[in-house]
Specification:
With about 220 residues, the chain is an alpha/beta fold. It has two domains: about 140 residues, Rossmann fold; about 60 residues, DNA polymerase, domain 1, CATH 1.10.150. The chain is built from ten helices and eight strands. The strands form two sheets. The protein has a six-stranded parallel β-sheet, sandwiched between helices. Helix 1 packs across helix 4. The radius of gyration is 17 Å and the shape is globular. The chain starts with a strand and ends with a helix.
Length: about 220
């Protein structure tokens, strides 16, 4: 194993507070009832347009509008209402020291992803950072992963693995011919990750580090 791709939300950073606050802002500004916290947490990870349509019954046109309003708050405050999971910096440092090439593959817009990683001092660990364009909400996780693998120069798919917390990460990895390690400290469940076909499931950053060092 030579390459590791990481999801951002729920894998590197605990981003739910800022995302949920941005969602509350959007629903209120649009004159809609604010969903309960359990529903809002379902928005963390998947593409936002899809989530507004799936969990709130919005039309595609209204979902696009909702994302624009959401970003009014997120771009100024929400992206920093966030924290790095315990042990992640140490994990990344040990993987780099072991010779891994690291990348980020996220459904979050590239511009926000870069600002978050820079804010928390994580940029230095990554060889490649791939998100979506601001107008690329229809871009799939598989497409983002494909771009990251290409940018890293991965030729042999068995040399690479994805790390993520939701079924979107597992499915997107599989569509690119690579395995996915599911993490339980994020926003998905063991059942969700198992059902999607995760190759391994770990409980925390320490367990993730040891697994990846063994795979190296």
């Amino acid at each position: 194993m030579k390459y590791v791709l990481f999801d951002l939300d729920g894998t590197l950073t605990e981003s739910a507070p800022g995302i949920m606050n941005s969602l509350r802002y959007a629903f209120r500004k649009l004159g809609e009832s604010v969903p309960d916290d359990a529903t809002l947490k379902k928005f963390v990870g998947p593409p936002l347009i899809e989530s507004f349509m799936r969990f709130s019954g919005f039309s595609e046109k209204k979902a696009v509008e909702a994302v624009d309003v959401y970003r009014e708050y997120f771009a100024e405050k929400g992206l920093f209402e966030n924290s790095v999971y315990d042990g992640i910096s140490g994990c990344l440092g040990r993987l780099r020291g072991a010779g891994y090439f690291l990348g980020v593959a996220t459904s979050k817009p590239q511009v926000f992803c870069e600002r978050i990683l820079r804010h928390f001092g994580l940029t230095e660990y990554f060889d490649v950072i791939k998100g979506i364009p601001l107008d690329g909400e229809d871009m799939t996780k598989a497409e983002v992963i494909a771009q990251a693998l290409s940018a890293l120069g991965v030729e042999k798919k068995s040399d690479a693995v994805m790390v993520g917390d939701r079924d979107y990460d597992v499915v997107g990895a599989g569509q690119n011919g690579i395995d996915c390690i599911g993490v339980l400290y994020g926003y998905g469940s063991a059942e969700e990750l198992e059902r999607a076909g995760a190759a391994h499931i770990v409980k925390d950053a320490a367990e993730l580090t040891e697994l990846l060092l063994k795979l190296r």
